[in-house]
Design brief:
Keywords: Membrane, Transmembrane, Transmembrane helix. With 140 residues, the chain is an all-alpha fold. It folds into two domains: 50 residues; 87 residues. 81% of the residues lie in helices and 0% in strands. The protein is built from three helices and no strands. It starts with a helix and ends with a helix. The relative contact order is 0.03.
Length: 140
């Protein structure tokens, strides 16, 4: 009794789920039909549902596959361009920073050079004065 109830509920469930299963996975033995009868019933369903005559579903599937491939290519291209742009901007930033450092060094070197030049002029002036003083002392 209990086993029959389980068998009936299983059969009812499978008959309700019939439309959701692919035809090749139908449990034909559970419908109480012999294999040849089930094959005669299922074959037309399978041929209607999975016909290869270029149905709308198949065309949509093909279009979606092609579109998917193009979207992947487009996405990778955009990602690549963004990555290249980021690298270019990073490179420009590095060059800009390097240029700023070089300008700072140049400014410091020019300051040092100016100070060195002033010191050299002072020394030269001092040497000239001392030489003139020696000449004046020796001429006296």
């Amino acid at each position: 009794m209990f086993v029959n109830r389980i068998a009936r509920s299983t059969l009812a469930h499978q008959s309700r789920m019939f439309h959701m299963r692919p035809a090749h996975r139908l449990p034909v033995h559970s419908f109480g039909l012999s294999q040849p009868q089930a094959t005669r019933i299922i074959q037309p369903i399978r041929s209607q549902k999975y016909s290869t005559s270029g149905s709308i579903c198949e065309r949509n599937d093909y279009v979606s596959q092609v579109l998917y491939q193009w979207m992947v290519i487009l996405g990778l291209s955009i990602f690549g361009m963004l990555l290249i742009d980021h690298r270019i901007r990073s490179g420009e930033e590095l060059l800009w920073n390097k240029q700023e450092r070089m300008e700072e060094r140049l400014g410091k070197n020019q300051e040092r050079l100016g100070k060195d030049q002033e010191r050299m002029e002072e020394r030269l002036t001092t040497m000239i004065r001392s030489a003139e003083a020696r000449v004046q002392r020796s001429s006296r």
